[in-house]
Amino acid sequence: MALSAADVQTVYSLLSNALSLDESARKPAESALAQCENRPGFCSCLLEIVAARDSGCRDDVRLLASVYFKNSITRYWRHRRDTSGITNDEKNHIRKKLLLHLREENSQIALQLAVLVAKIARIDYPKEWPELFSSLAQQLQSADMLASHRLFIVLFRTLKELSTKRLSSDQRTFQEIASQLFEYTWNLWKNDIHTILQSFSTISQAITLNSLVEQGHDLLLVCERWFLCLKIIRQLIISGYPSDTTTAQEVPLVKEVCPMLLNAIQSFLPYYSLFQERQVRLWDFTKRTCTKLMKALVAVQSKHPYSFGDQTVLPAIVDFSLNKITNAEPTVSFFEQFLIQCMVLVKSVLECKEYRPSLTGRVVNESESSLSLEQRKKNISTAVADIIKTILPSDHVILLCNILIRRYFIFSAKDMDEWYQNPEQFHHDQDMVQWTDKLRPCAEALYIVLFENYKHILSPVVISILHEAMSSSPPLETEISSAMLLKDAAYSAAGHVYYELSSYLNFSDWFQGSLAIELSNNHPNMRIIHRKIAFILGQWASEIKGDTRKQVYRALIRLLQDNDIAVKLAACRSLCYLVQDTNFSENDFFELLPACWNSCFKLMEEVQEFDSKVQVLNLISVLIDHVGGRISPYAHQLSNFFCKIWEESAGESLLQIQLLVALRNFVSSLGYQSSICYSMLLPILKSGIDVDNPDSLNLLEDSVLLWEATLSNASSMVPQLLDFFPYLVVILERSFDHLQVASSLIEDYIISGGVEFLNRHASSLAKLLDGIVGNVNEKALLSTLPVIDILVQCFPMEAPPLITGVLQKLILICLSEEDDHNPSRTAVRASSAAILARVLVMNTNYFAQLASESSLAMHLQQAGLSINQNILLCLTDIWVDKIDNATIIQRKAYALALSVILTLRVPQVINKLDDILSVCTSVILGGTEEISEDDSGGDTTSSSAPNNEAIGYGGISVRDARMRQIKDSDPIKQLSLENMLKENLKACAALHGDATFNAAISRIHPSAFAQLITLCFFPLKSIGSYMAGVYIQQFLSTFVMWLEKSNVREKQG
């Protein structure tokens, strides 16, 4: 039932009770509100409460009403089938009333109202709410300062929401909005900045505190409105015009706006230090403003690089940014966020591909318009490249490189204090933080881009700084001096650009002559250099050759035993890089494994941060993966470690995911010896695959993969693993997300579990397969059909009666005629037909019973398939028709099944003798004795993809060996089609009588018949050439006599 105006007070009471600290009042109120959410009129009641600011309503209740209002709009504004939601009349009422109550004094409620308008506008503008922007613009004309500020909040939120719509029509609509709103917003922005700067100038002249308080609130509102205008202008330029990289057409607003933004930065920047102590709120505004202005310039350059590259825009902005980076002005020296944005802008310009002149020739074979577009782009790129050369001549490039290394790479006293207080947190702040969040990582990112652009100029410069730092700070130094900090910075610079410096610096000489000596200096202050050496060893991994590599392994393991966690973690990461490097030597590393394991285990106990634990686990996992089968002597030690970490990480699912990955590598490396870790592994596995586990949502995927690795490497099926199969049934009943891996698991259970598995879980397996076939798409079905095929192969007598329902579904798939121009569906039909052929060959009596069951006829009728002949005859047509779509082993299964069909009491089969013998002949001629495990037929004969295989150390995996054995013992592969066909032709003649049989034979083309007789009765490859000639002569004489008796007048071809 709909709510009305009479219910407003009731809703208000519920909202008030929902804020109560008394649970007995709060819970019923929350429940009642939840029940009201989808009732018509609820949003109107909430709007009445939000708008009743002068009626004595509490602000906290109004704020809660605005939150419920926003959530209800999100859920029910669009039409939904399951609820009546919000009617069109109510929507009209809400849209009109919202625009009348935007002047909200409470800033939190004002923000909620702005978000509300934006969410509605995303759905309704322009079709249902065309007057939105005109109404807002009209209100702006007569608004006071507060109302104007609130309206600009609404404008900004609405434009931000609309700018994210990606349809071409929506983008054109946004461009129209931009053309209408820009001029007014831009003029207001310019007026407000004039007012703000005048007020700032007055304040800076030390006006008395009382007068400041009197005008402070209005000034702050002007500041905030101006700030919103800036955001809107940025949004209009970025989203209101297509990128000039696609059109090569100038965006005029860029030339107009960007210089003004730069002037604004230059005007505001002096007030940063001036207001820092005396005017905290204005200082905060200044800080936000300068940073936001630089971010706006970065965004415009990224969206419209060609327009930004104009002579009136790019030189001044880049030169300003470079000056702020290179000149140590007190005004900005401690303004990190602003300096970061200056570096981001310079980096963005240097790495902009549109500013790099094209090295290709003229474009040919294109339309004239395309040629002119490319030529315009090329001309602009060349012009901008010349501007950048002017801004950044060689001496400026060298200066910038020196400043970055000598100033921004150097650790400050604050950095050293943070390191001392919390080494682990310091390590992650320096190495794993987003590069735009902190100054040093941002400087390093700019340095890397600068070096890539000017490598020939800067390589000697970096080498020079490196030699200078090494000579001024000897290896045995113990004091944290400026020289030591410069060496740390130089090592950072050398580590980041190793790929170029290797031509100037021989790593082996550097390591032996300096790094190794510094590593032998165990003074606590050397942790600075030790951590950076660890970084270098990881970065230069590809350049470490020969005997030096083993020394580097030893050095990193010693660093893993350092007293400082930051050093240990740096060594941990670099050792991981070295192990993953293509030059990794198992022989050199093997003797170091005990010390490495112990160091990793100890480090895991010491660290507290999640990222640290993941880093250590990743190293252990990588080591296990690369050491391979040599891991077995340490299996017990590793098992104890994994068991302990799993118990300690209870509730930390992200860490347990990493542990499951390491366990998968562990099991794969152990291979057939993996059972030695079952006491640790199986309880963990059981916990991970249990869908009732609270963490199953996070752990299930990796647990299922670990389950696959466990079965793939199991030398035998232990009872505990057999007990796990019901978990797989539950998993697939809930979702088919893990179907591909599940198919591999079922295969392993069938092959390794054997009769015991079938005896225990036959009904569950049949239910599982029946739930899959017919309920998944073709791709998923292609991963499941091989499982059914292997099941029938391993249990030809027991399995088919268990999966009667599945086989009936396969018959329906085969008889459907919907696979034209659909390769996946064709593959499904071909594989289904091969399974049915296998059943017929290996369990003929059952198949005859299956084909005649009344339930099958009922299913065919329900599927709309009209069958006018025996099912066996229909399948005969399928096997004949799909022979060209089948793999080699499937083709042989078809031929064997067709051969068996000849012996069944189906009178009409004699009419298909020509087609049957044609298929059999083609299969015999195609050769079947060369079928091997490599004949996988794409995705249709093995359910597990190659990347899911657990590859054992030193050769074939346990699972591969089992699959090869299964394929080699396949009766389809071992049966002789020639012999079976010969015997079945005799049985066919006896069954149908000589007259009928000879009549059918007479319809076969003589050359085809001769070919068949030769293949089945005279295998020429097994006799000599003389005897072959004798046999052929005898056969031809007999064949001519047969032709005369049959009155066949057709000439021999």
TrEMBL record:
Any single Gene Ontology cellular-component annotation: nuclear envelope
UniProt main location, coarse: nucleus
GO molecular function terms attached to this record: small GTPase binding
Pfam family, one: IBN_N
Superkingdom assignment: Eukaryota
Protein's cellular compartments: Nucleus
Keywords: Nucleus, Transport
Region entry Disordered, spans: 930-951
Signal peptide: none
GO biological process: protein import into nucleus
Record domain Importin N-terminal: where: 29-104
Family statement: Belongs to the importin beta family.
Protein name: Importin N-terminal domain-containing protein
Organism (species): Ensete ventricosum (Abyssinian banana)
